[in-house]
Amino acid sequence: MISGATLLAGVVGNPIAHSMSPILHNAWLAAAGIDGVYAPFRVTEERFASFVDGLRGGSVRGLNVTIPFKERALSLADRAGDRATMAGAANVLVFEADGTIVADNTDGLGLLAAFAEQAPGFDPKAGPVAILGAGGGARGAAAAFTAAGCREVRIVNRTQARAQAITDLLGGEAFGLHRAAAAFEDAIAVVNATSAGLAGEGQLDVPLEATPAACVVMDMVYKPLVTPFLARARALERRTVDGLAMLVGQAIPSFEAFYGQPPPADVDVRALALKRLEAR
Ligand code: ATR
Fold first, then answer.
1. 108-244 under CATH 3.40.50.970, yes or no
2. Shortest-distance atom of ligand 1 to CA 132
3. 72 CB less than 6 Å from ligand 1?
4. Element (H or E) spanning 217, and its range?
5. At CA 91, angle to CA 280 and CA 70, rounded to 5?
């Protein structure tokens, strides 16, 4: 039941209809007995800044931010935590009552939680990691691996200058997409952080066979759960990590940022999301 005191939060992106975040957060809200609603917001590029500005004061408690707004979300905030600053991108905005906007980045936590869960024994310190893409998702991943002690983060992107902008900030090496095979050589992990595979964005064609047999392959896209990218990795007998594990992993600290308490541990949100993904 929605009341006059209901706390509002949500996720903003474009496209957004595919997002599983509302399924996760609303299930947690119900289980925790919190009077709250978590809704999807599809906003155009030109209206994003005015949309965010209009929420100052806290009529909406907080937002998760997804493609393609993570970098702009950080620039619109008044304050940012270290994780967001290091990533140069934010996937969480909290609207304080005094009108300020606080940014955080929980994508990196989600990414590392997903590896811990689905690739047990994976050690980010053990070798180079290759990240495909140079948007906000890629920045969050690069910052997380760097903070976890990875000795070389390789950023591979269609537009190499964007990859370079990340390595200028965090170190590591930038590659054009045509040099993906060189970036995959001796990599302990390859992470797809491009929007390729999302509706209308085309597919990513990279030579996964250039990765070592022990390389772990991850895709941030989770619809379908086994993306063509992950299916190719599995055909090559690589261990894989799916984007749904990361989504849940970033949603837990996001929930805490919005409501000041961790989500109830006894809700199987992965199963709920899987059921919804299969129904589509
Ligand atoms: P976000 O900030 O949320 O990560 P983004 O800034 O739109 O979103 O980033 C999308 C990423 O996917 C970019 O790295 C983009 O490459 P460019 O920087 O060259 O634009 C990448 N991308 C999108 N579609 C792609 C495709 N079909 N093949 C390869 N890369 C693609």
1. no
2. 14
3. no
4. strand 216-219
5. 95
Give the model confidence (pLDDT) of 48-80 as tens digits: 999 999 999 999 999 999 989 999 999 999 999
pLDDT tier, 199 (very low <50, low <70, confident <90, very high otherwise): low
Same fold, 7-106+247-279 and 108-244: yes
pLDDT digits over 91-104, tens only?
999 999 999 999 99
Indicate the length of the chain as a whole number: 280
Distance 25 CA to ligand 1 centre (A): 27
**What is the distance in A from the centroid of ligand 1 to the CA of 249?**
22
**Tokens, residue 132:** 């495909």
Selecting from 3.40.50.300, 3.40.190.10, 3.40.50.10860, 3.10.20.310, what CATH number does the domain 7-106+247-279 have? 3.40.50.10860
Ligand 1 atom at shortest distance from the alpha carbon of 137? 4
What pTM value is reported for the model? 0.92
Q: Is the dihedral of CA 164, 168, 169, 173 positive or negative?
A: positive
Whether the pLDDT of residue 202 is over 90: the answer is no
199 vs 218, which has greater pLDDT?
A: 218
**C-alpha 10 chain-centroid distance:** 15
* C-alpha dihedral, 96 to 97 to 100 to 104, nearest 10°: 0
Phi, psi of 141 (to 5 degrees): -65, -45
CA of 81 to the centre of ligand 1 (A): 25
The residues spanned by each domain of the chain are 7-106+247-279, 108-244
Closest Cα to atom 18 of ligand 1: 159
